[in-house]
Every structure is written in structure tokens, then in C-alpha cells.
Design goal:
Layout: H1 17-26, E1 31-35, H2 42-53, E2 58-64, H3 71-91, H4 100-103, H5 115-132, H6 134-147, E3 151-157, H7 159-169, H8 175-189, E4 193-199, H9 203-208, E5 219-223, H10 229-242, H11 249-259, H12 265-282, H13 288-299, H14 305-318, H15 321-334, E6 340-341, H16 342-353, H17 358-370, E7 374-377, E8 380-383, H18 386-396
The protein binds adenosine-5'-diphosphate (ADP) and magnesium ion.
Adenosine-5'-diphosphate binds near residues 16, 36, 38 and 42.
Length: about 400
């Protein structure tokens, strides 16, 4: 059965050949920004990339920076990540110039092999060393990295949240702005380093509060969408075989018609695991009526509400208050209509916010699009995901 919640690793990882190929070819010249909301499969792709890139003279560092809230902490994570990789690669006997980095923070670098003690000491001296002037110290670190013969790949998961944290935690000088301009210069100077960043929060909106999006316009943006229908059908078929249920394409298509486009792995996983739960409890045969019941009673019922609640709550967390209020009202209306006109949405915006600022309204619509809530085609708005639309209409559709 597909994992629901944890990133798909190893055998659980299905397809994404196109995305992986696209990213690997982009990395030849560019840095990559993976754009998709939570649970669309970014971390799974990043972990797959980490495996694909590993080997030869490549150094690959994966960091989840969701809890990072200062440039100093970000840099110390980078240096500790290099230590982990060093330790890993020293076991495979390759030594590298990267060890010189530690000399910047600690004399006895030869201890690198002794994990726990050394790492704790190193982390302390790194954070100490970065306290004074993290920009100078970091430039020294990357000068060493730039001289090394390896190709270095840094994968930063939940990068936009780290920037948001920095922006919210900084005292006087805007750490977030300084960090972003330093990071941009770094990308222009380090020729043997590539960055793959991704995050469940649209970076555009985070950056709008931190001096604008031009600091990342050198990234190649790669969208992570749902699976193609035939891939999603294969996954359903595989689960039927694993559970020894009798598979027919009618049943397979019935399940995908419930989930609807786009076929986001997480939502397909939720539908299949709810079906399994119900089948085990009732012992019933998996047929069209069981699938329909599971969708209407469980998926759209209280039992599975916790899977979708975060998509509603994050509007209050990541959007400004007025925007969040207008967004909830607009999405409520879009969830009740096949196509909802932009004019009607602007009426709702004006009513909810009291503002007649059309530019601001359009920014909000593009944020909701970047966050994969809606699609905007020729002045018509529609929900991006059918299952989320059905859920939204039931729980937040009264406007
Ligand atoms: N390529 C994939 N193959 C199988 N399952 C996947 C794949 N991508 C994502 N999933 C499933 O979707 C869910 C969310 O995946 P994850 O990578 O954590 O998303 P994100 O990082 O975008 O929040 C997990 O349950 C995972 O098992
Ligand atoms: Mg993730």
C-alpha cells in the first residue's frame, strides 16, 4: 500500500521520470526551484534526486531547513551537512579538500571520523564562529568549496519557510534580506555548486514581504503536478493486486474519478488506504458502491477531515489577515461553481476587504494559483483538485 504522509522512498517511489529528467538537465547550467504545495511529492522527488546524484565526484547534501530561523543557523546546517557527507564518503575512502572548511572553525579537524563528540563540538564552534560576521566566514567556506574538485549539490527542503522564519525573527537589520542577497551572490560565484530548493509555501509570497522576487529569478522553476492518469491507474492496480482484490479498469477508473484531477499521490494514497480500512472492517467486496461510500462517507466525512484541514488553516498562517478572509470567501464560492468568473471574485474581494485595489486582488489570485488552490483560465476560476473542491464545498462552501 502507498505510504500516506511520509515521503515515498525506494520501492514506494513511483514514476516522476519526467520531473527527475527535467531537473537533472536543468542542473547542468542552473539552480532549481521545486514548486508545489504540501504533500504533492516534493520531498520524495528531492530524496530520489539525492540518490540519483550520489556517486562519482558528486557531493550531495540534503537539508530540511523548516526549523531554521537565522542565517547563522542556515550556514551551520550547511557545514554540518558537509561533515555528515565527509564522514560517509571517508568511510568509502575518498578524502577531499572540504576538510579545510573545518579548520576555519576548529583546529583538530583530523577527528572528523569520531562522529558524536566531534560533531557537537564542531557545531558549537561553527555557530560561535558565525556569530561575529557570518557573511565573511561563509564566503571563506564557499571559497574552499569552490576550489574543490567535486560537484556539490545542496538540496534545501522547505526553504521558503526558513526565509519566512528569518524575516519574522530578525531584530533590526533584515537578516532575511541580507541572507537572500548573499545567497544570490554565492550562486553567481560558485561554479561547481548547484542548489535545489523547494517548499510547500509559495516563495513568491514570502519574498514579497522580504524585498521582492528578483533575488531568486535566476532559479529554474519546476512545477510538481499530480501523476498522469495512466500512472495513477497503475498504482491503483498494484494496490488491488497487493490486497488480492479483483481489479477491473471500471473500478480503477471509478477510484480516480472520485479523486479527480489532478492525481496528487497523497490524495490517491488517502483514497486507497480508506478503501482498505473499510474493506477490512466490513469484509465487503471492493465494488463501485463500496468505492462511492468510502468517498462520500469517509473521505468527505469527519474521519478524513484532518488530511484536508491544513489546506484551509494555512490560509490563516501564510496569508495576511485581509487576504486570508477574501481568499476563504472566494474559494468558498469557487467550490460551489464549475467555473467562477474573475469579476464575481473581485466583488467578493471588495466585500470582504473593503478595498477596491484590483492589482492587489490579482496578486491574491496568483498566490492562490501558485499555491495550487485554483486554476485561472480566460477569466474563469476553478479548483485545481476535484477532491479538495468537494471537501471545501462541504466544510467551507457557505458564502
Ligand atoms: N513519487 C511518489 N510515489 C509514491 N508516493 C508518492 C510519491 N510522491 C509523493 N507520494 C506520497 O505523497 C505523500 C506526500 O509526499 P511528500 O514527498 O512528502 O510531499 P511534499 O514534500 O510535497 O509535502 C506521501 O504520502 C508520499 O508517500
Ligand atoms: Mg515535504
Amino acid at each position: 500500500m502507498m505510504p500516506v504522509g511520509n515521503p515515498a522512498i525506494g520501492e514506494d517511489f513511483v514514476d516522476r521520470e519526467q520531473e527527475i529528467k527535467q531537473i537533472l538537465s536543468a542542473l547542468k547550467k542552473d539552480n532549481v526551484l521545486l514548486a508545489a504545495p504540501r504533500r504533492f511529492g516534493k520531498t520524495s522527488i528531492m530524496r530520489k534526486l539525492e540518490k540519483e546524484l550520489f556517486g562519482g565526484s558528486n557531493v550531495v547534501i540534503f537539508l530540511d531547513v523548516e526549523s531554521v530561523s537565522s542565517p547563522q543557523r542556515f550556514l551551520s546546517e550547511i557545514i554540518m551537512g558537509l561533515t555528515d557527507f565527509e564522514e560517509f564518503s571517508s568511510e568509502s575512502g575518498s578524502s577531499s579538500k572540504l576538510k579545510n572548511i573545518y579548520k576555519l572553525f576548529q583546529d583538530n579537524v583530523e577527528e572528523v571520523g569520531v562522529p558524536a563528540i566531534f560533531k557537537a563540538k564542531l557545531r558549537r564552534s561553527v555557530e560561535e564562529g558565525l556569530k561575529e560576521d557570518w557573511i565573511d566566514k561563509s564566503n571563506e567556506v564557499f571559497q574552499i568549496i569552490n576550489k574543490s574538485d567535486e560537484n556539490i549539490y545542496f538540496i534545501f527542503d522547505e526553504f521558503p519557510i526558513a526565509i519566512k522564519n528569518m524575516n519574522e525573527s530578525d531584530t533590526d537589520e533584515s537578516d532575511a534580506e541580507m541572507f537572500l542577497s548573499w545567497f544570490r551572490k554565492l550562486r553567481q560565484t560558485c561554479t561547481n555548486v548547484r542548489f535545489i530548493v523547494g517548499g510547500s509555501v509559495s516563495i513568491e509570497r514570502v519574498l514579497r514581504d522580504v524585498g521582492g522576487t528578483n533575488v531568486i529569478n535566476d532559479f529554474r522553476v519546476i512545477r510538481v503536478d499530480g501523476f498522469e492518469r495512466d500512472i495513477a491507474l497503475q498504482i491503483v492496480k498494484q494496490v488491488f493486486e497487493e490486497e488480492s482484490w479483483e481489479y477491473t479498469s471500471l473500478l480503477g477508473n471509478k477510484i480516480l474519478d472520485c479523486v479527480g484531477e489532478s492525481y496528487i499521490p497523497y490524495f490517491v494514497g488517502i483514497m486507497l488506504s480508506a478503501l482498505l480500512d473499510e474493506q477490512i472492517i466490513t469484509g465487503k467486496e471492493v465494488d463501485e458502491s463500496l468505492i462511492e461510500d468510502v468517498y462520500n462517507v469517509h473521505i468527505l466525512g469527519s474521519k478524513c477531515k484532518h488530511y484536508f484541514d491544513p489546506y484551509f488553516h494555512r490560509l490563516k498562517i501564510f496569508y495576511q489577515e485581509m487576504d486570508s478572509k477574501a481568499a476563504r470567501a472566494i474559494l468558498g464560492n469557487v467550490s460551489n461553481n464549475e467555473n467562477y468568473s474573475l469579476e464575481l471574485a473581485f466583488d467578493v474581494f471588495q466585500r470582504e476587504t473593503g478595498s477596491h485595489d484590483y492589482e492587489h486582488f490579482l496578486d491574491l489570485i496568483s498566490d492562490l494559483e501558485n499555491d495550487f488552490y485554483i486554476e485561472h483560465n480566460c477569466g474563469q476560476l476553478s479548483f485545481y483538485s476535484k477532491i479538495l473542491k468537494d471537501w471545501w464545498r462541504i466544510y467551507h462552501g457557505n458564502f
